[in-house]
Amino acid sequence: MNELILGIPAQYLAVAIMGMVYAVIITEKMNQAVIALVASSLAIILGLLNQEQAIESIDFNTLFLLIGMMVIVGIMKETGIFQYIAIVAAKSVRASPRGLMAILSVITAVFSAFLDNVTTVMLIVPIVLLLTEQLKLKPFPFLLAQIIFSNIGGTATLIGDPPNILIGSAVGLSFTDFLLNMGPAILFIMIVMLGVFDFFWGRHLTTSMRARAHLLRYEPAKSLKNQALLIKSFIVLALVMAGFTLGHNFLHIETGTTALAGAALLMFLDGFGHKLTEKNKKVHEAFHEVEWDTIFFFLGLFVVVASLEHTGLLGLAANMITELTEGDFTKTGMVILWVSTFFSAFVNNIPFVATLIPVIQSMGDTFGQGEALNPLWWSLVLGACLGGNGTLIGASANVMVASFADRAGHTIPFVKYLGYGLPLTLLTIVFANIYLLLVYFL
């Protein structure tokens, strides 16, 4: 799309609008949801894309997944299960801040692989905030670990991160394919990052013996408040988790539909047997738990990124890859890894992955069809998923953690996160690069 709008090339306008969004986010002068909605409206009004294209660009599956899981988690909070998990985790490491950071990071990575990273941070971040408050610790290092390890763990499986779902669906890669090929790399990267976090933060964390003793005196069982609702919640959560895997693989039901269905079922079960006024009250409370500013931020961001795609900028970036590699298979894989890392950190991995999939498929004429292209797909997976750690808006899980933190009064500044997130991301990509070279390209 090379047309002029108000005498200005459309691509320039698209970049300017995205730049405006980033400038406001970095300077923190306006709510993220507001600037995303203003920018997306401007993109439509200026004609960078029409309303139909804007609606098509919105990933409703992601939004439905977020809303559904927010409702489920919000209802589950009433049972005291999060406090229970927090106390058990703290007791397992004798309330040691250093041990707590490590065990919560491992839990997050594992849950992110077998559930999905967005759901995982919804479950774990409230626990992190509770424990750091009890131990009088600054929550930032723990929240940073939640973001990093959720995206690392989500890289390992088909359902762990949205880009994996896109790639798996387009290419026919199974849950087992992802686990066998990405699992070893992610396990190694996770161990390295545990060491990094312990070296820079864990070993310096201190709290008073009084605070530790106070936390250790808690009895986990006493935190559980509503046994009946807890059982209902676990049943629904189990059905949702099964639906994420079985529904996607065999029934072709998207994760967003599964999450919304689970939320509806849990709201029904929670209100069952109560009078209508009480049922309505419970529903209102459940919907109040939805982070609507986060939902609308994503909605606006999808449209703004789509304006870059419709003006040809994302396609141009994808085509540059084939020009840079000059038909060399190893060079192609490395370029895909690093370019996808950059775009995942600073734009958004979902539209870029969607754009790059047909580009890689077209390389079959040069490198061979089917499994011959698998090393390129794994390069894209590692770059897109791990690259999401680069900035605070690089992945859905990042935005969710920031939203929880902001609500709790512990705002994570964009620039502060960038100073830590980008170097850690580059470190993981270096190890990913080595893994790809050793296993697939040499």
Describe the structure.
The chain is mostly helical and 442 residues long. It has a domain at 61-154 and 181-288. 77% of the residues lie in helices and 1% in strands. The chain is built from 22 helices and two strands. The chain has helices at residues 10-27, 32-45, 51-57, 60-77, 81-92, 97-114, 117-134, 140-154, 162-171, 175-200, 209-216, 227-251, 255-271, 276-288, 292-310, 313-325, 329-346, 349-362, 364-367, 374-387, 396-407, 414-441, and strands spanning 4-5, 8-9. It has a two-stranded antiparallel sheet. β1 and β2 form a beta hairpin. α4 (60-77) packs across α14 and α8 runs antiparallel to α10. The two termini are 40 Å apart. The model has no long low-confidence stretch (mean pLDDT 88).
Observed structural traits:
mainly alpha, 77% helix, 442 residues, two-stranded antiparallel sheet
